[in-house]
Amino acid sequence: MSSFDYDLFVIGGGSGGVRAARVAAALGKRVAIAEEYRFGGTCVIRGCVPKKLFVYASQYSEHFEDADGYGWRVPPARFDWNALLAAKDREIARLEGIYRRNVESSGARILDTRAELVDRHMVRLVEDGRIITADQILIATGGRPSPHPALKGHEYCITSNEAFHLATLPKAIMIGGGGYIAVEFANIFHGLGVETTLVYRGVEILNRFDDDLRAGLHEAMENKGIEIVCRAVAEEVARREDGRLDVKLSNGETRIVDQFMLAMGRSPNTEGLGLEAAGVETSATGAIVVDCYSHTSVENIWAIGDVTDRMQLTPMAIHEAMSFVETAFGGNPTAPDHDLVATAVFSQPEIGTVGLAEHEAAKALEEIEVYHAAFRPMRNTLSGRNEKMLMKLIVDAASRKVVGAHIMGPDAGEMAQLLGISLKAGVTKDDFDRTMAVHPTAAEELVTMYQPSYRVRKGDMKPRDRE
Fold it and tell me: Which residues form the active site (predicted)?
């Protein structure tokens, strides 16, 4: 019989921590899991789920506009922000309840308290000061929006956390940042009728995505009425007498808005966890350093999910949790696979992507073929909407293997999931060509681009490489 209170103690009740606790308990291990806030983590409580619900809500404004072209006469619509918040809160509470019940039914013990490491085998429960011992400890505390204390007036700003609970919908908002969170919320607020400005220090939004997607989304957002200011940052935020905000930008402009949202990265939740006391190594950004098996610098302490800053995606945290249990308790050392992971940006239009962007493939491979199509999807014809859809395949010319697939348009995320399976299986462009199209669909374009739009040789695309 073990001398420890538990075989596994999990700190953090998000998707990764809950999955690890449930699976380990199902193996007969004695498991406890501590969560200081609400079960479900960032994704369920203040991330993916409420954000996607807000995306759906914001799309209705365009749906109402498009309906006329299809014969529907829709009376003037009225949006109720408080009704959306209440509906969102009910759904989040329902999902949180499912998370808790799943943990309880697995046999793991739930502790509604913050937990801190005392040493490599001891954990202190902040709620009552009790000390718990465990053979193995898993840290899955996730991340949070990065603070920006250097910004004068940062105390007047909100982050994505607060955006889900605003008492009133602002009439005008400025969002600082150019990543997927900033882009998604810019589209959400605009769709809900808010005058929206995005300010980003870089040359173009969505750094590290394929350049055609970045430029295409930028154009589409501006055509909708979202103002995008690149090569600029907020230097000062000041509260006006009327409660609104003056935002001074580095380009010399000053804008007046109701809210300024900071969306410039996320930071791991490692402060106050007792990592130093236990000897757990962290990086310069505060992320927990792990090896390929999610081991920390301490043999019996592990970490998964956003707190490790490897790949901040909910499905990846769950995958890392499953791999951890296999390694720690299954006698089967399993390294989580971070390669060829499909992702989506729930912008409007949506982006779905998997594999290498064109510029990445051009640097890595001797020669690539690029298949590119931009077209007006059928749903936009009768509605009169001019928004284009973009599809792009990147192919290794030597092996004919498809190494990247990128889509911008309706349901791009859904398509990316299926493309992820294809690329993971190592399919070639010839496999795409042999696949019969489903007609009429937008996705059929993926299997009917028979000739490359151009080639890139030795990482240097020149006009003669284009066909």
Answer: 439 (proton acceptor)
The candidate with the shortest Cα–Cα distance to 365, out of 462, 449, 461, is 461
CA distance 404 to 363: 13
Which neighbouring-strand residues pair with 173?
Answer: 196, 259
**Best CA proximity match to 229, nearest among 187, 261, 201, 192:** 201
List binding-site positions for NAD(+): 177-184, 265
Question: Is 210 within 8 Å of 404 (Cβ atoms)?
Answer: yes
- Residue given tokens 């709620």 in the structure block: 127
Residue 467 has pLDDT above 50, yes or no: no
Annotated binding site: 52, 177-184, 265, 306
Supply 431's token pair.
């496999």
> Is the model's pLDDT at 15 over the cut of 80?
yes
- For the chain, the 3-state helix, strand and coil shares in percent, each to the nearest 5, are 35, 25, 40
Give 201-225 pLDDT, tens digit per residue. Answer: 999 999 999 999 999 999 999 999 9
Token pair of 239 as six digits: 């509260």
Q: Tell me the catalytic residues.
A: 439
Known binding residues for FAD: 52, 306
Q: Taken in order 90, 93, 99, 104, is the CA torsion positive or negative?
A: negative
DSSP, residue by residue, 12-31: --SHHHHHHHHHHHHTT--E
Is 463 a residue whose pLDDT tops 50?
Answer: no
Count Cα neighbours of 160 within 13 Å in the Cβ-side half-sphere. Answer: 29
Give the three-state DSSP class for 304. coil
Tell me if 131 sits within 8 A of 277, measured CB to CB.
Answer: no
Residues 389 and 375 sit within 8 Å (Cβ to Cβ): yes
The pLDDT-based confidence of 309 (bands split at 50, 70, 90) is confident
- Position 464 scores a pLDDT of 39
HSE-CB for 428 with a 13 A CA cutoff: 7
